[in-house]
Design goal:
Order of helices and strands: HEEEEEHHEEEEHEEEEEEEEEE
Structural class: alpha+beta
Strand content: 25-35%
Strand order of the largest sheet: 2-9-12-11-10-13
Distance between the termini: 82 Å
Largest sheet: 6 strands, antiparallel, barrel
Length: 445
């Protein structure tokens, strides 16, 4: 019985100790919890994407178009002698590639025979002039003779009728006297008729002589021209392309002697698509295809070598429009030394022609790398990323000019972004004047 009570006492002691230890632990935990301070409250900051950007500004841009073509000399002339003969003089510069000035002697043909022909023609003119003068003098003289003969004819007629009346009515006189008077009257009458015929022929003879004089004068002019044509001079300044003149050799009229080319004015025929010609350059706005061509500025640059200089040019005319390829062909002319100095531009060189087109206002100039392949750009609007659809107006190697629904205060994102999420909050590094950068960050949404 005693052992049983002892066992229950141990159980109670153990339970009491456990309760005591548990209560002490709970009391210590409560005191520790009461002594600990609450941590400070930190607000949650949304995650931001750091990008580089530039302010969106509208500018005006001049549209441009370009094309390529080969330079050709505008003024090329094949020179041939107009008369035949031996070459007695030749310009020392008359060789392929040689330069001659306008009016310089090219070659001279022996002019002896042509000088003789000229003297003969002058003599013929003098003879025809003398013949006309003689006919006119004879006409006046025969007119005077006709007046005298007509007067004598009237007198002879009166004498004949008087003698005939005396013989027949009064039986005065003789038959022989009447017949002699009649013969004298008839003779003067024949002379009068002959003079009238002669006088009537004078106008025809004078007209024929005047025609002969006109022919002689034409022959004289031809002889003068032929003599002058013995000396062949340069009609303009230029370069000798082909030369076939030999001193002392005979050259027939019309034979090709040389080819002279004026390198100072070159023409380039440039093909342009109809969009470039009509939309960018504005050709045809006046109702005809050539309307507005003269007002389009352009420059020519040689691309044959390593030349970077250019020369001012002008559209001379619209050559044609090819409907099958929808291409307009423009003839552009450039003068040596025009607009900014000489460039080594000669016949046969391949050239680039740059045209200034119409002006477009309210465009945005952006780096070409900021324009996506689907004609969109990334912008920062209210510190959030936006994708904006744009229309490309024009572009060069480094920039593009676009139009779109930009708002004041937008920034164009110039950083390269891979799969950006729309409306992402941004932290923007804005480029300003020079190389200075300003940081702009977005706040809590």
């Amino acid at each position: 019985m005693f052992l049983k009570k002892l066992k229950w006492g141990r159980y109670l002691l153990t339970a009491g100790l456990c309760i005591l230890v548990a209560g002490a632990g709970m009391l210590g935990a409560a005191k520790l919890a009461a002594s600990r301070q609450a941590p400070p409250h930190t607000p949650q900051v949304p995650k931001q994407l750091s990008v580089s950007a530039v302010p969106v500004e509208t500018v005006s841009v001049r549209l441009r178009a370009s094309g390529y073509g080969q330079a050709a000399v505008v003024n090329v002339l094949e020179i041939s002698p107009r008369v035949s003969g031996n070459i007695i003089e030749k310009n020392p510069a008359l060789e392929e590639g040689g330069m001659v000035e306008k009016g310089a002697l090219l070659f001279r043909i022996d002019e002896t025979d042509y000088a003789i022909s000229l003297e003969k023609a002058r003599a013929e003119v003098k003879l025809d002039r003398a013949a006309i003068g003689q006919y006119r003098i004879s006409l006046e003289r025969d007119r005077d003779r006709l007046a005298a003969v007509q007067k004598n004819t009237l007198l002879a007629k009166a004498e004949y009728e008087r003698l005939k009346t005396l013989l027949e009515q009064d039986r005065v006189g003789t038959r022989s006297n009447v017949e002699a008077a009649e013969q004298s009257y008839n003779s003067l009458l024949d002379t009068e008729k002959s003079l009238k015929k002669t006088i009537a022929l004078y106008p025809l003879q004078i007209t024929e002589a005047e025609n002969n004089l006109a022919k002689s004068r034409a022959d004289l002019k031809t002889a003068e021209l032929n003599l002058a044509r013995c000396t062949v001079r340069a009609p303009f300044s230029g370069r000798i392309q082909v030369e076939a003149v030999e001193a002392g050799a005979y050259m027939a009229a019309g034979a090709a002697a040389l080819t002279l080319a004026d390198d100072r004015v070159l023409e380039i025929q440039v093909p342009l698509g109809d969009r470039d010609a009509f939309d960018i350059l504005g050709l045809g706005n006046g109702g005809s295809l050539s309307a507005g061509a003269k007002e389009v500025g352009c420059r020519v640059e040689s691309v044959t070598g390593t030349v970077t200089a250019s020369a001012a040019a002008e559209i001379h005319r619209v050559v044609r429009y090819d409907a099958s390829s929808r291409t307009v062909y423009l003839a552009v002319r450039v003068t040596a030394g025009a607009g900014g100095g000489d460039i080594p531009l000669t016949e046969g060189m391949f050239c680039k022609v740059m045209f200034k087109g119409r002006r477009v206002d309210h465009t945005v100039k952006i780096p070409i790398t900021a324009l996506n392949g689907d004609n969109t750009v990334y912008i920062a609007r209210a510190m959030k990323l936006k994708t904006l659809k744009v229309s490309r107006v024009t572009a060069d190697d480094t920039h593009a000019w676009v139009t779109g629904a930009f708002d004041p205060g937008d920034y164009l994102i110039t950083s390269a972004l891979a799969n950006p999420i729309e409306n992402t909050l941004l932290s923007i590094a804005v480029s300003g004047a020079g190389d200075k950068m300003a940081m702009v960050s977005g706040g809590k949404n």
